[in-house]
Each structure stands twice: as C-alpha cells, then as structure tokens.
UniProtKB/TrEMBL annotation, chain B:
Its cofactor is thiamine diphosphate. Belongs to the transketolase family. PANTHER family: PYRUVATE DEHYDROGENASE E1 COMPONENT (PTHR43825), TRANSKETOLASE-LIKE PYRIMIDINE-BINDING DOMAIN-CONTAINING PROTEIN (PTHR43825:SF1). Gene3D superfamilies: 3.40.50.920, 3.40.50.970. Keywords: Thiamine pyrophosphate. Residues 3-167 form the Transketolase-like pyrimidine-binding domain. This is Transketolase. SUPFAM superfamilies: Thiamin diphosphate-binding fold (THDP-binding), TK C-terminal domain-like.
Amino acid sequence: MTDSAPTPAASAQAAPTLAVATVADRIRRRVLEHTLRNNGGYLSQACSAAEILATLYLRVMRLGPSQGPAVPRPFAGVPSAANPDAFTGADYNGPKHPDLDRFIFSPVHYALVLYSLLIELGRLGPDALEQFNQDGSTVELIGAEHSPGHEVTAGSLGQALSQAGGIALARRLRGERGRVWVFMSDGEFQEGQTWEAFAALAHHRIGNLGVYIDANAQQCDGAMADVMTIEPLAERLRAFGAEVHEVDGHDPDALAAPARARLRLAGDPRVQASDETPRQPPVDALGQTESQPPEPAAVPTAVPAIGPTAGPATGPAAEPAAADRPLVVIARTDPCRGIDLLRARAPKLHFLRFKSADEHDAYEDLLEHWQDDAS
Amino acid sequence: MIETVTRPHRANLIRFGEQHPAALVLGADLTSSCEADGFRDRYPERFFSFGMAEQNMLGFAAGLAREGFLPYIHTFAVFITRRPFDQLAMSIGYPNLPVRLIGFLPGITTPGGVTHQAIDDIALLRAIPNMTILEAGDATEVESMLDCAQAIDGPVYVRQLRGEVPRLFPADEPLRLGQARVLSQGPEPDLAVISSGICTEEAMRAVPALQAQGVSVTHLHVSTLKPFDDPQLIDAIAQARHGAIAIENHSVIGGLGSALAEQLAEQGIGKRLLRLGLRDTYAHGASKPYLMREYGLDALALVRAAERLIGASLDIDADHLAEVDVENGSQPLAKADKSEDL
C-alpha cells in the first residue's frame, strides 16, 4: 500500500510560499475535526501552538522535502537488534544532511497538531489522519519515534532536550552547518532534567540548538501558576546561560525574528539580512536522494571543525560568544486561541472530553461554521 | 600465584580509545574514581563532563549514539541504574542505542554505604528490553569489556571493577559473550556452583575445600547476565545430584540466582537451587571482607550452603579456606581500602 502511494515531496517544496496564519487556521480546524471524530482530544494544544509550529516549518528550519510515504507506515515493531524494520518518523522532516536542520518534537501530546501541520505542508498525505489513534497505526494519540514527524521517543516529558543536545553536539563535532530545533511545552520546565540540560548546553557552548517553548501556562491539572509555577521563566533561563526572547506566540514575524537574527549572528552564509524566508538548500545539497536519506558517517570522528567559537569543549574559561549560547524563544500563547468555546472549560484545558451531547453539538456547529467560512 | 592488576580498566580504556575514534567518554564528576582520567587526559576532545546530572547525561549519550558516536558513560553503578532509570529505559533502551554504561562499585565492593552500593542494578536492568548486562569477575574480564561491548548492537551495561583486581583467568582467554567459564568439572557431580563477579574468587576458594572432603563439584562462572541463555548452566545443574548454589554480589531478587530459577522452572528441571546474595536487605558502609562475611557472600557461606544442600557436615571452617587462599598465593580481599575516593 505504501509503495504505491505518491510521496508528497514535490508539494513540500512549495510549502514556504504558504502564509503561517493560513496554515495555523487550517491546523486548528483539522484538530477540531479529529477531536470531534474521536469524541475528545488535545485541542487546546492546537490553539496555542499552531503558529509556533507553522513558523518553525515555514520560516525558521531549513528542511529538505519529506522522505516519508504519504500514507503513514503501520507500526513495524519496537526497535531491537532483531527488528531491522523499525523506523523513525524523522523522514517526514526531510533527509539528514550536514547542511539541513533537524527537528526534535518534545511534548508529544501535541502529536495531532504536528500531523495536521505536516498534512497542510504536503509532507503527509491528506488522508493520513484516517489512521489517527487506530490500533496498529503509527499515527498515535501521544506520538513516539515511529510517528510521522517524530525523531525521538519523548512522551516521558523533559527527556527530548538532552537528546537534542547530544545530536547538536554530534553535529558540531562533525563540523555540520545544520542546526537542531526543539519544540517544548512550558510544563516541561518543571522537570529537573530540563534544567540539567540547559546547564550542559551552556557549559558545552552548544549554540547550534534552538528551543521554541509553547508557554500556554496550562497543564494537566490546570493553570501552571496553581500546579507549580515556573516563572520567571525568562530570567531563570538567562541565569542558566541561554539567550532568551519572549514573544507573542501567535505573531509569525515575532516568532521568526530571533532565529533569523541568530543565523545572521552565526555568520551563516545561506542567510542574508534581507531574507524574508529561509533559503532552501540547493537541490544538489540534498544529494539528489529521493527516498534514501544520507546516513551518518559509519565512523564519525570527533573533530570540532566548527565551533564552539571560543574556549575548549571541556570547560569554558571565559564568557561564551553570543553565537555559542543556546537560543530560547518563549512563545506566550493563548490556549483557547481561535476556539473561544474552550474558554468555558478553563482552567482545565489539557484534554477535551465532551461532558454532554450539547457541548459536543456546540463544537460540531463550530466546525461546520468553520468549513462554511473556508468554502 | 594469582597476579593482582592495578587499575586494569584505566589502561584498557586508553588503548580502546586509540583504536576507536568514534568512542567518547562521558563523566559525571567521578572521572578518576571510574578510571577514565587517563582517557580524558589523552583524548580531551572526546571527553565530556556533565557534572552531577545523570538524567541529562544519559540523554546526551542517546543523542550522540543516534548520530553514530559510541558514548561510554562512566560513573558509579547506582547513579546509572537507580537515579536515571526512566531516562535509561526511554532515551537509550527503547531505541536500542549503542550506549555503553560502565558502572563501578557493584554490590558491596565499596565502603561508601547504602547510597553507593548497587545491590539491585542487575534486577532493574534485566527488566529493560534490549539491554545487555555484563559483569566482570577478574582483571581479564575487566580488560575484555570494551571489546565485548563494541560488538553488541544495542545498549550494554557493565558491572565493572576498579583498583586492585585479581587475575583469575588467563589474560589470553577474554570474556566471551553469553558463555560461562567452566572452572571445575567434577565427575558425577554432587553440586553445581554458579558464581558471578567478585563471588567467583570466593567460590574458587571454597570449591577445592569441598573437593578435598570428597564432594564432587561443577563450578561455572557467569559474566553475561543478559541475555541469559547459556545451556551449560542448566545442564550443569540438571546433572548435579543434590542441586545447585548460586552466589552473587547482588540482591537474591532479580539477579543471577533469580535468572537461574526462572530457567530451571521453565525447563522443568527439578533440582534445588540455593541463592546466596543479599537476602532482601540493604547493606551499610564497611570493608568488603567484613560485608562479604556479614551478608554471607564469602567462601565460608558457600561451604555452609553446600552442607545444607548435601545434608551433611563437611568439617570445613574458615581456617581451611584461609589455607587454600594462602596456597594460591593471593589474599586480595585483604586489600579493600576504606580510603578509596568515592
């Protein structure tokens, strides 16, 4: 089945011309549709994160065309030495290439938001969500590394940043220009491991890694301020050695600006000050691969060909250069953005489970109205 | 005469680093204590310090391994297994990444007390799918670990020894994955003794004393605790008239003895199995010989267990065992040092 399915690679190339606002609106509509179909789901995450994720894919990250099948592969078993068929969903983010970026998706409860985005960008087929939350499917409710767009298994929250740090360090050791971008939720800043990771990122001057945080101030038990506050988040992160920007998480220009500035600061030759959108790498930079992403070198050697800009890897003696600090964008967001009906459920917005037929009907009406608007 | 080797892992790690340019060492503020200081000084660009933050260190190791590097984590066994268990299971175990976890101070080898004594690490890591578990019993096996782990597709946990380590096995007979060492093969055996780690040296003291009393003993040393499928072990127990004794530097729950019991039950081998180890108890800070005697992990405890299994007194006491030891020219247990850096 997957063999005969057309790959969405060609349409992915056209994606940057799409407007973030348009994509974000379509993400919310699609997530609402599947929340209704499943009689519940993670809806507020689409409200808060749609612009962040769309901006990352459209204006921040440099990714090649999707290498994944339009129809998601069924689950092929857990990874093990005895299972050569196991795979990750990273190929939906393009091939691995020294000049291309990598995307690490940490709060995988947002999986439906990511799947919807991949569909809107043509990286995943339009019918991929037929398999959402179905037994035997990789399009899981809470994503794992086999799920489309996922590269690591991050459902135990707060673990992906450290793994992304290892990937970024490896890329620096190999002298690669591509960067690592991590999407996180603010709740993950309650985990001690997140702070261990920031300490290590700063200490080892891992400046080729950027973090976008959906700061929607919500978590499973309710408002974060009531459950366990993480504020002042920006000050805490700065004290840990990160370069921090706080922006309106629904404003694509504000979201993209810190990443663009960092690329210019790092002297990335592929980014010009006047660029509106990141330049896609030339086709030959992708190694002309259609379905076989280049694998890492069989025996990588640990030569710090690029960076850190100053100081030995084992211990900074002086202040790190600005381009060697981990970059953090705190995106302040509204967990009900675009779906005002949700506000009635505050402060518990984490998972929408319809309490009555009337409530379900109200969301159904919203979806129908939305579709009317779109047509 | 048994040779004692000083810091065998330290030299071996430097050698291994020269041969494998993708090998990295990750440390958590116990670099010299885990004999990784030589590698750090020789290959500073391949050594990464993570401070006392093991959860994050395991995640970084996972990321590096995904990119084709070979991270060798060095810290105490308790801080690899108990403290960051979820990170180990999810970031490294699930994706079957080639991260090598070199854990020092197994069981009661340290006077550092309960916080430093890994008495449950085998039990915890046996429960993680994809994990391979190796345990060193002597200097030859300490020196075998890196090459053995290199050939394994997936994460490897090594219960490693440091400092003064006796060489019980010939230097040219390295550890072979999944294969027990037959140290003694008695005719028509009365008992099978299955030992691991530092308890093998104790068993090598007890077995000759038992044999001198006319007890025929088959003795096997186990260094691969997972996968646990060497048929020699169950065959030896099946052939032993009175059954078997397992002796290990670990809780009796979840380690070597438990693994043997599972195999015996599944294969329907109706033999008794006495498990020597920490009997569902924590230990405390004291010297290794003191703790081995207190918790019944030494040669005399093995003799007493043999008497229980046979149902007869063998008239062997500590003096006999000490004589055996002196004849072999080795008293490494006396070298436990309470001043070792922790």
